[in-house]
């Protein structure tokens, strides 16, 4: 919910070691014109990222960095996201940086909360929450 995809995204993470994970996802966000009218298109967001975990425990603070590809940047150009107000430019990638907390329980349940800075057509502060399953 919210996060790198601005409204929602479905993501897959792969653990690369005790302190690193890489992931990607897919999501969409509705758009509007700068005047607030319906943009008529949903931006297709593909976040790609790396996470670094500061602790090797089930719960850890982490730092994250990556980029979010706007798959339909041409049709989204000049519009802004309904959630977050990100203005889509002709550059199809928005950079992301963030910090957060993640807990992976013994049963496989995963919970993550993070604060992000998204740089695409300007800078917007943003937050997100993730619920999932680790296997």
Characteristic key phrases:
1 helix, elongated, 135 residues, mainly beta, 3% helix, eight-stranded antiparallel beta sheet
Descriptive account of the structure:
By secondary structure, the chain is mainly β. It is built from one helix and eight strands, in the order ββββαββββ. Strands 1, 2, 3, 4, 5, 6, 7 and 8 form an eight-stranded antiparallel beta sheet that branches. Strand 6 and strand 7 form a beta hairpin. It is elongated, with a radius of gyration of 15 Å. The relative contact order is 0.22.
Number of strands: 8
Q: Give a short account of the largest sheet.
A: 8 strands, antiparallel
Shape: elongated
Q: For the record, give the distance between the C-alpha atoms at the N and C termini, rounded to a whole number.
A: 21 Å
Number of helices: 1
Question: Residue ranges: pLDDT <50 for 5 or more in a row?
Answer: none
The helix/strand series, from N terminus to C terminus, equals EEEEHEEEE
Structural class: mainly beta
**Rg (C-alpha, Å):** 15 Å
Give the proportion of residues in helices: under 10%
Strand content: over 45%
Strand and helix map with partners:
Layout: E1 10-15, E2 20-32, E3 38-53, E4 59-70, H1 73-76, E5 80-81, E6 93-104, E7 109-119, E8 123-133
Summarize the structure.
The protein is an all-beta fold and 135 residues long.
